[in-house]
Specification:
Blueprint (H helix, E strand, L loop, with lengths): L11 E2 L6 E3 L6 E3 L21 H18 L7 H16 L6 H5 L4 H17 L5 H9 L9 H8 L3 H7 L2 H21 L6
Antiparallel strand pairs: 1-2, 2-3
Helix pairs in contact: 1-7, 2-4, 2-8
Length: 195
């Protein structure tokens, strides 16, 4: 039995080609012969069915609102700022087709750059004792079991990673402007702003 690397649903054999497994919930496809060996390896995704642009954008907004509503400091909390940092990196570098999980994964070059954006945004908008330590906590780098608060939140929001990967560059930059505007409003007014 294999589980979807995107949403955790049990994978089913696809009708054609039969060498693939497909997730009935989110449509992710993986090769039938590649999968978790010991439960720790993530299968290579060979095809992602994109999310409709308007739905992808709404999924990201919903996730950001949910993250902000549970963060101690609202939109100025660590995890909402980490999402903004990821979008800032995507927008500035013109990247598309990349999900949030890939951006925070310490095993690739994206995470280091997103971390630098996070530290810059956190020093401007958040009241953190150490932005670097906060990044380590929310991404699992400072955890003994390497679990990530942000990764759990992303995986807990069905289809979010696929939605982010489906956004166009214009959508990414538009969402970034929207989120930063809310941060600026909150910083100016000195109170929590709901989005």
């Amino acid at each position: 039995m294999k589980f979807c690397p995107e949403c955790g649903t049990i994978m089913r054999a696809s009708s054609l080609p039969t060498t693939e497994l497909v997730c009935p919930k989110c449509g992710t496809r993986i090769p039938r012969d590649i999968g978790p060996v010991d439960g720790n390896q993530t299968p290579r995704v060979i095809e992602r069915i994109p999310v409709e642009p308007a739905k992808a954008e709404e999924n990201v907004r919903r996730f950001y609102r949910e993250l902000s509503s549970v963060a101690d400091y609202g939109i100025r909390g660590e995890k909402p700022i980490a999402v903004i940092a990821a979008f800032e990196y995507l927008c500035e570098d013109g990247l598309t087709g990349v999900g949030l999980l890939q951006l925070i994964d310490a095993d690739n070059g994206h995470s280091r750059i997103v971390r630098d954006h996070f530290i810059g945004l956190a020093s401007k908008y958040a009241s953190l004792a150490s932005a670097s330590n906060s990044w380590g906590v929310i991404t699992g780098l400072r955890s003994s079991d390497r679990t990530s608060e942000l990764e759990r939140a992303i995986k807990g929001s069905l289809g979010l990673d696929r939605s982010v990967a489906s956004l166009s560059h214009d959508q990414i930059c538009s969402l970034l402007r929207e989120f930063v505007q809310k941060l600026d409003e909150q910083a100016t007014k000195g109170k929590l702003v709901t989005i």
